[in-house]
């Protein structure tokens, strides 16, 4: 290779590296700005309870897919530590649902804020195709209302998707233990 060709190749490589760095920087800035815009909308997440009763649905290991603003399944929440995927364990108690995530803080979903629990083919950009009636849909979606009044969907993909039936068929209860009407769970 002659010297002019080598110099031109090095210049082109440097330009490509600078262009890639620029686009990565812009993507990170966009994520930070999204988090700042959503911070006021999301507000403060519910605090973890001091004590809970015995589990009504035992620990279900899987993947915390993410949280989106309802009703858009692709409008990912970046604020309040809700934007990143993580291995997780989902457990339901009479007082609510605990999402214990690896590498991130736990999420507590109080029972009285749960609007619906259903299965979906996708949430937050994660799509798992339907594989027949015996396999169920790919993502368990929990719609709940934040203290700020905003409704969000929290997505969870269980390692064993047959466990979704336990989650979808578990009716919410009020403090006396009677079924609460008007809620889908």
Short description, anyone?
It holds the Pfam family bPH_11. The chain is an alpha+beta fold. It has helices at residues 3-42, 164-169; strands at residues 57-69, 86-93, 96-101, 107-110, 114-120, 122-123, 126-127, 139-145, 151-158.
Overall number of strands: 9
**Nearest-integer average pLDDT:** 84
Number of helices: 2
Query: Globular, elongated, flat, extended or rod-shaped: what is the shape?
Result: elongated
InterPro entries: PH_bac (IPR057446)
Keywords: Membrane, Transmembrane, Transmembrane helix
Protein name: Transporter
Can you describe what's shown?
This protein has 185 residues and is an alpha+beta fold. Helices cover 25% and strands 31% of the residues. It contains two helices and nine strands. The strands form two sheets. Strands 4-3-2-1-9-8-5 form a seven-stranded antiparallel β-sheet. Strands 6-7 form a two-stranded antiparallel sheet.
């Amino acid at each position: 290779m002659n010297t002019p060709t080598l110099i031109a190749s090095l210049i082109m490589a440097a330009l490509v590296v600078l262009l890639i760095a620029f686009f990565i920087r812009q993507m990170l800035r966009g994520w930070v700005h999204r988090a700042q815009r959503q911070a006021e909308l999301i507000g403060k997440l519910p605090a973890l309870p001091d004590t809970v009763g015995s589990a009504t649905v035992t620990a279900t290991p899987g993947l915390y897919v993410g949280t989106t603003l309802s009703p858009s399944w692709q409008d990912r929440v970046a604020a309040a530590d809700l934007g990143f995927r993580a291995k997780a364990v989902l457990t339901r108690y009479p007082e609510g649902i605990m999402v214990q995530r690896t590498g991130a803080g736990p999420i507590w979903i109080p029972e009285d804020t749960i609007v619906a629990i259903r299965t979906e083919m996708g949430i937050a950009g994660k799509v798992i195709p339907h594989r027949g009636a015996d396999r169920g849909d790919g993502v368990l979606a929990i719609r709940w209302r934040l203290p700020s009044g905003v409704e969000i969907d929290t997505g969870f993909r269980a390692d064993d998707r047959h466990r979704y039936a336990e989650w979808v068929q578990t009716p919410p209860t009020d403090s006396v233990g009677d079924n609460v009407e008007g809620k889908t769970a």
